[in-house]
Amino acid sequence: MYVTENSPKTVLGSNQQVQNQLKLALQLGLRRQIFVAVCDDLRLMYHIAERIELEIAGETPFPVGAQYLRPQALPPEQFDAKPSPGLVTLQLNLKDPSPINQIRTWLRKHPIPKMSRTIDALPVLPNFQFLGVDLLTRKSSSSQWYFLNELQELAQSLPSLEFSLVFWLTRPWCRTIAQSAPEFWSCRTGVFEFAGEPTPTAEINDLPLTSIEPSLKHNSELHKPAKVGNATPKRSGKPKSPRPKNSPVSGQVVQQNSPKLDPQLDPQLEKTEKSKPTADIPAISRMANLANPTSNLPKLEIMGVSDRASKAIANSSNPPQINGLNYSGIDATLQQLITSTFATLEKAANSSQHKHLSVASVRQIVADIEQLSQHQPLPALELGNAYLALGNLYRVAIARGDSNATYLKIVIAAYEQTIKFRNYQENEGNNLGYELINDIGNFYWMLSRFDANLPEQISHIEQAIAAYEKSLTKINRDRQREAWAIVQNNLGSMYNELARQREPLKFLQSSIKAYEEVLQYRPNLQEIQQSNGTEAEKNAQIQAFAATQNNLATAYWNLAQHQDPLKNIKQAIYAYIQALIALESQINTNESPQWFLNYGMIQNNLGTAYWNLAQHENAEDNLQLAIGAYQIALMYRTPNAAPVACAATQNNLGTAYNNLAKHSPHHSQDKHNYLKQAIAAYSTALEIAESRQKIDGNKTKNVGIAVKQSLVTFDVLTTHNNLGDAYYQLAIETDSESESSSAKTNLSHALEHHLTAWKGWQEKGQTDLAKNALTHIVQTIKAFYNLFGVEGQNIALSQIPGEILPEVMPRLSAFKH
Predict the structure, then answer these.
(1) What is the pLDDT of residue 264?
(2) Kind of pairing between the strands at 87-91 and 67-68
(3) Fewest CB within a 10 Å sphere: which of 152, 197, 256, 761?
(4) Which among 171-180, 399-408, 601-610, 702-711 has the top mean pLDDT?
(5) Which helix (DSSP H) or strand (DSSP E) does residue 452 occupy?
(6) Sign of CA dihedral 198, 200, 204, 210
């Protein structure tokens, strides 16, 4: 190679040799390369950069700066020839130090002609070199921080770029970038070092810019189009609504656990606790810290800040004075929120924790805002960047698990100020506007999780909805289909969440409408399979399609509890089946454990939908379908892979078998088998619940009381009562003396589980449920008497605690008479 290796190494020879090597590297025609040119003599740096640009331009039809150096048309015989790549020189825009933004702006102003006459030919893009990074030394720390993060973003999008880049740097900036943007630094192809004495700081502003396009020197366009070359944007994080509140179904004999739906899937099926069916936190998390609900932070894709940003500030020159802050220009509420975090941050600093967020780093950005606020006219763009840096600083802390309501409020307020000052315009490719407003909606959703006050929760959800609706106004649905789908998905989730609090019909219908919009603007399964995308791209699209179908189905299921149950349950079943068909198309290409859990979760939801349908028509057939779906779900939701999810599905399976037994003829073999299956499923669910209790460190023996609601997603006490009823039904199905011993055993088990349920509900103060359990206790004692006489009754009474006898005996006396 004609370039140095990945470790910075001085290139031997004169500056002319190094210049030739850099020029040759650019002329090789390679794409997606990052070259670093190092020179401390800034005048020499600009001179060499201009020479390389002009020499390359002499061999190519590409435009340089604002004009074509070879504007004449190519002769026909050379029209299809592949030219050497051109080179465009850009001065870094200090108001918006984003290299990618500047390249996009340049490409819009200078359309590149096709180098072939074929219809599908694409323009061959020139390479780009950037000067002026050294001028950031005199800019604010937030501007430097912003630039370093943009380099990190560039590194992530490098595989999809159709050009190469050269960054001209001084050695101090090389060190800063290597330390503070390591992901970018690791992507460099080679380093070219030129000899020269460092330029005195006072002379920096007098550098020649003869080859730089004038219109880009003061470019204030701040947007992030969907594509640069073939680059595709990353998706914003997306909140999803949790499992809807289910209405318990009471049978004629026992109160049942209604089979539960699992939470809705994230459109990208990201790493979430899908094994936790009734979790109150929407499944949008990329974090695994279940102890902290706000660790479920969405990956909010805007121009953000690197986790190493504090290092960038520490290494930057001329930091602002931060000791006499008066918070001029900052809203009083935001000022109060910021200062309220200082005590906690100082305490964390003393314990060497949370280095990514410190009082010093916050004060530096506040100092920048103060200084900018004193200028007239206000430098709106730079103020917007400073507020963005402030919000991102706290956002990084949230992403690392330091979540609290104050941090969330600071991020929201800072982002709102960013939008105010940056004054986004609705023009083609201006994605950042919708993304930032979408992110505000996500943080309002998170804030709703912190507030125990129900009216405040509802208010935050409404603010999230308002943000999402505003975000939609920034999107052209025809040109930005994926962006439209992302925000509609978030809107659907929030409507579903709001429906849990009030006006369920209105908001569930709005939720369904939003999810149907998502499906309209994303490709369907057939379109995905016929596309030319890679396997990874197709898999991601299929997972998104399946997730949306699951979310739509859950909204229909919830709506069925309030309106047109037959119609809406059938709509839910159809959508669940569509989700399963989509996931099944990946069965041979996707071995991710999360894929298996997602597939099992949707099968569980399908089973619950069939169970609901059985309450309205064709009971036996639909219960059989429900059982089949639950059994398939348990192939994936195993005790080892997902114990909590497995327990929930086992409980659902037990309820389905228990219901099916009630529709079977008395003393039939089918009824006998169904009851045994119900007992086995309920028992497994309780065993897993007990094991989770032990893992949780709770030593209480009574499982029904000890298991935390956060660990299991069904009412354990109701399961005990249901299991007792299944044992009771099995005992009274006995029709021969040879089975009398098993009948006695089954009645003893029934009495044991009914007593467990009674005791748990009594201690919780749930008197109505305790009375229900007491009715079953008396019923079981009567069965002992009917089958085994006084001796049997005495066996039953010996198991009854003395405290309950005064309530039991009068009811037994009434039975005998």
Answers:
(1) 60
(2) unpaired
(3) 197
(4) 601-610
(5) none
(6) negative
